[in-house]
């Protein structure tokens, strides 16, 4: 990684331009296809963990693309469509509740990320993964702490993962009424915990998570 990428947080640039600049810095003239990878759904008590991988064209700057947690649902939905249209390649990977219980949430998340990258229609030269873990996908991989705030392609992946998972949990609300999945998306809110006490867990709950059993 170039010195510019390592010191990008101190560069006197607008935050929105910085994320695109970070990606150009790590590209460093050698990597044509850089994939950003992020996930949604590590903390909920129910539903899958969803990962996304996104390869954006070199030189593209999408000013509004940011960490999905900093965006409203309406903005995320709009940007999700833009990202899918503008990306050279994108893909989603999931790990279902049963896999999460069998593997633990960290390993299941990394499994979902590997699936997302391996399903890309373009093989990346470099993979940027949000967090502290790298993944084995046959390409150079860099873990970027706070990557969804620092890298445009990682932020784009965070948006696709979040929008996809929220849509899935809204559908789960129709299949499993009474839990309020459309509202809390499986997170341990008071409403969700009360529904668990009243109804017990359903088939999409993570049985190894505290508060479910």
For this entry, give a set of tags.
213 residues; single chain; 44% helix; disordered N terminus; Nucleotidyltransferase, domain 5
Q: Can you tell me about this structure?
A:
- Helices cover 44% and strands 15% of the residues.
- With 213 residues, it is of the alpha/beta class.
- The protein has a single domain, classed as Nucleotidyltransferase, domain 5, CATH 3.30.420.
- A five-stranded mixed β-sheet has the order 3-2-1-4-5.
- The radius of gyration is 18 Å and the shape is globular.
Summarize the structure in short:
The chain has one domain (3-167): Ribonuclease H-like superfamily/Ribonuclease H (Nucleotidyltransferase, domain 5, 2-Layer Sandwich).
CATH architecture: 2-Layer Sandwich
Mean pLDDT: 92
The whole-angstrom Rg is 18 Å
Task: Report low-confidence residues grouped into runs of 5 or more.
Answer: 1-13
CATH fold topology: Nucleotidyltransferase, domain 5
Total number of strands: 5
Structural class: alpha/beta
Largest sheet: 5 strands, mixed
Terminal-residue CA separation: 45 Å
SSE order, as H and E? HHEEHEHHEEHHHH
Number of helices: 9
Indicate how many domains the architecture comprises. 1
Content of β-strand: 5-15%
SSE layout:
Blueprint: H1 3-6, H2 15-27, E1 34-40, E2 49-55, H3 73-86, E3 89-95, H4 97-103, H5 105-118, E4 126-130, E5 140-144, H6 147-150, H7 152-175, H8 181-184, H9 190-199
Parallel strand pairs: 1-4, 4-5
Antiparallel strand pairs: 1-2, 2-3
Helix pairs in contact: 3-7, 4-5
